[in-house]
């Protein structure tokens, strides 16, 4: 693997080896990874990463929401140059989503040691709790608590889709830390991540220079009808929560397609009760994920969803309740830092294109407290949140070189 970064001897092979080692924890039989937040698998993954941090002699701090920070001291104290992401995954996850940003940060710190470089500012690598939002909502929960925009107690009292309390699960895996919340300050935050979509691969571009993250709206809708016999109940007498949910799911796709452009809408979770072949469903619980880069358009989509749910519920004679699971406005990253990502990549001879992130990231929370930016590399077939998620070692090395070169520049020597 060519060493792209003359300034810092980062080692892409070592990074890929660590990605594979971490991917063994929660490995699925058919390939891929399942390390849902705050499960025993997440705990084991955390133990491995903290072990590597300690082997590298980093100062390890774990805060009360389980965010993990490994800091390499500078010749001066003060705010860190922070690199980070997450190591929790969705249930059909891969080796790279989140893990790449944490382990690449660790690799940069190792390379600084290998090169005997003393930086002026401290350099920190962070792994934030529950970025995915798969088991506990909202997503980016750990970084949102870190920046002070979600009260710790409210976060600890969050109930998972399995009915467990976040604070209890956190204690069970031994990561209810005691380090001061927000104690590790970032002067700048860099997140290295796979694109998770098809653009970079399709255009043959090495590095995505991420200008921001689109807005996210997650809603849970519970529809209540009446169970009845699938054979003996005439259609006109039914209060079919399953039919109502199916109509709403179809309507979500219609809203996204009628708005068009970058609008996306997803019904990812749909549960029926009693969920039996010969019973008209009495209850349906579904999630709706709406996203768009512009707040005004996202709000329009939300209004159309509200109208759709009310109309379908009335027509199908069911009642409904709604619960907002997450709501984040679009975020623009720091223009100067975005420019430095682009300049660094180009100075390394890499091709770049500017883009918005379709996925949410911890960087959008850190951006509330310091200049933040992201580095993307291609996802093969644009796949992520899929066990076939893959990014080639050469691409991993490219992004690592950009991250290491820029982090060293920001940390000073
Ligand atoms: O849903 C997201 O965008 C992220 O993977 N949490
Ligand atoms: Mn991610
Ligand atoms: Mn993800
Ligand atoms: Mn993310």
TrEMBL record:
A Pfam family matched in the record: Peptidase_M20
Residues the entry annotates as binding Zn(2+) 2: 97, 132, 385
Gene3D superfamilies: 3.30.70.360, Zn peptidases
Cofactor needs: Zn(2+)
Binding-site residues, Zn(2+) 1: 86, 97, 193
Cofactor note: Binds 2 Zn(2+) ions per subunit.
UniProt-listed CDD domains: M20_bAS (cd03884)
Keyword Zinc attributed: yes
Hydrolase found in the keyword field: yes
Keywords: Hydrolase, Metal-binding, Zinc
Family matches, as SUPFAM superfamilies: Bacterial exopeptidase dimerisation domain (SSF55031), Zn-dependent exopeptidases (SSF53187)
Similarity section: Belongs to the peptidase M20 family.
Entries under PANTHER family matching the protein: ALLANTOATE AMIDOHYDROLASE (PTHR32494:SF5), ALLANTOATE DEIMINASE-RELATED (PTHR32494)
Name of the protein this chain belongs to: Zn-dependent hydrolase
Source organism (scientific name): Pleomorphomonas diazotrophica
Upper lineage: Bacteria, Pseudomonadati, Pseudomonadota, Alphaproteobacteria, Hyphomicrobiales
